[in-house]
């Protein structure tokens, strides 16, 4: 039985790079997780502040009222399915978080155009998003985790908004999607911190 256990475990270890059990006790890894949990919480707060600005400025506050316009815009949510319970793998999850952060960093340019009076907050958010993405990239390299590249179909440049209203709704959905993305990323980092 012991030999069978060892045989079953060996391929799993090779497939997954550094096993989470080994990572979870690593003090540097735990420090990374806790710092970036705080960083993610800060970014979520900044996104929420911009969502309030969009709500106050354009009276765009409720997603369900804008779903028909959303279909026309083609603004997709950056995927994070690798960070969910059953399919969770550290390498894949970190890769998706990193890729999603890069995607939202670019998308925030549309929000910057929309809210020039709040350029400071949007630019800080872009900088923080780039820094969090870099932190994750660096940590993956430090831990020897394999980089996972996911197909990018549907995540090209932002759509050209046909009207000012579409631009406003686009900004609304970029922020709403980013907030959901950050919630999932936060839960994934918290899950790793508890292992």
Task: Give an overview of the whole structure.
The protein has one domain (27-193): Up-down Bundle (Growth Hormone, Chain: A). It has 195 residues and is mainly α. Helix 3 (27-58) packs antiparallel against helix 7 and helix 5 runs antiparallel to helix 7. The chain is built from 7 helices and no strands. It is 72% helix and 0% strand. Belongs to the IL-6 superfamily.
Pairing-aware structural class of the strands and helices?
Answer: mainly alpha
- Tell me the number of strands: 0
C-alpha-based Rg, rounded: 19 Å
Architecture (CATH level 2) name: Up-down Bundle
How much of the polypeptide forms β-strand, as a percent range? under 5%
CATH topology: Growth Hormone, Chain: A
Number of helices: 7
Largest beta sheet, briefly?
none
Mean pLDDT: 82
Instruction: State the end-to-end distance.
Output: 26 Å
Number of domains: 1
List low-pLDDT spans: 1-22
Helix content: over 70%
H-E order? HHHHHHH
CATH class: Mainly Alpha
Any idea what the shape is? Answer: elongated
């Amino acid at each position: 039985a012991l030999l069978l256990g060892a045989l079953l475990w060996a391929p799993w270890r090779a497939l997954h790079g550094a096993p989470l059990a080994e990572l979870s006790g690593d003090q540097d890894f735990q420090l990374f997780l806790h710092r970036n949990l705080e960083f993610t919480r800060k970014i979520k707060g900044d996104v929420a502040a911009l969502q309030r600005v969009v709500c106050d400025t354009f009276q765009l506050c409720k997603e369900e009222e804008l779903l028909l316009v959303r279909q026309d815009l083609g603004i997709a949510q950056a995927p994070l399915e690798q960070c969910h319970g059953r399919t969770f793998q550290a390498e894949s999850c970190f890769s998706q978080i990193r890729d999603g952060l890069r995607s939202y960093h670019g998308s925030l340019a549309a929000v910057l155009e929309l809210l020039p009076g709040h350029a400071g907050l949007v630019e800080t958010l872009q900088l923080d998003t780039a820094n969090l993405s870099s932190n994750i990239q660096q940590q993956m390299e430090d831990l020897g985790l394999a980089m996972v590249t996911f197909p990018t179909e549907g995540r090209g440049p932002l759509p050209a908004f046909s009207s000012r209203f579409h631009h406003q709704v686009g900004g609304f959905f970029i922020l709403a999607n980013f907030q959901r993305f950050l919630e999932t990323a936060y839960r994934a980092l918290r899950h790793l911190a508890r292992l």
